[in-house]
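About this split. The held-out portion is used to measure sequence recovery: a designer receives only the structure tokens and must propose an amino acid at every position. Recovery is the fraction of positions where the proposal matches the reference. Here is one held-out target exactly as it appears in the evaluation file.
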């Protein structure tokens, strides 16, 4: 290769690597959402990188990996919540063992669904967004994790996710995936809980159409 060609090649590599480094730095600076990653999660990506994650793998909570019996005395009164907990890894998942029985969730005195609390998060059944719609949230290794499924018989062009924390009282809204299920993770900026809600939307003539509204919340505590 001629000297001039080598010089151009090296310069091209330097420019490409600088661009990659700048993009990575920008992504880390945003530090919010992306599709559910492998365990452990990589550095956060920007909002535009969020993708559908229908069969999310549970991330292990600190000090947890092997499935163990839960001797807490609490029982599962909701088969959908129990099934989701088991699918995510049961006691060996990021959720850990139950720390409550199933609780009824009401809004303005009206029954809306059910929720169960675990060592590191919650699982919430939100039937207004689908009779089998369940959201699970937990935290591990500095990340708040959210997983939801399934909105059948509803299927959406896009999902909106809002999350709130002591570091973000006003909340942040991002668009994540499509279809009937999904997941996302957030790099935590407080040791307190993160609260998530999800809304499925389609494209309407004058903007988004979100017929089923927001789900009940799932929190990391």
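Reference sequence for scoring:
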């Amino acid at each position: 290769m001629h000297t001039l060609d080598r010089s151009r090649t090296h310069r091209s590599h330097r420019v490409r690597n600088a661009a990659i480094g700048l993009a990575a730095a920008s992504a880390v600076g945003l530090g919010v959402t992306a599709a559910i990653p492998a365990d452990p999660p990589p550095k956060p990506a920007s909002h535009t990188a969020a993708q559908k994650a229908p069969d999310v793998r549970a991330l292990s909570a600190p000090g947890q990996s092997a499935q163990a019996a839960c001797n807490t005395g609490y029982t599962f009164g909701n088969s959908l919540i129990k099934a989701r907990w088991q699918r995510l890894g049961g006691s060996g998942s990021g959720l850990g063992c139950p720390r409550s029985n199933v609780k009824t969730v009401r809004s303005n005195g009206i029954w809306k669904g059910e929720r169960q609390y675990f060592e590191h998060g919650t699982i919430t059944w939100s039937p207004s967004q689908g009779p089998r719609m369940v959201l699970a949230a937990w935290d591990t290794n500095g990340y708040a994790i959210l997983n939801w499924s399934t909105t059948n018989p509803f299927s959406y062009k896009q999902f909106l996710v809002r999350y709130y924390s002591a570091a973000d009282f006003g909340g942040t809204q991002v668009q994540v995936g499509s279809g009937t299920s999904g997941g996302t993770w957030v790099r935590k900026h407080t040791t307190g809980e993160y609260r998530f809600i999800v809304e499925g939307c389609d494209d309407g003539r004058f903007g988004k159409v979100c017929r089923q509204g927001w789900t009940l919340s799932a929190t990391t505590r």
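Annotator remark: The longest strand covers residues 195-204.
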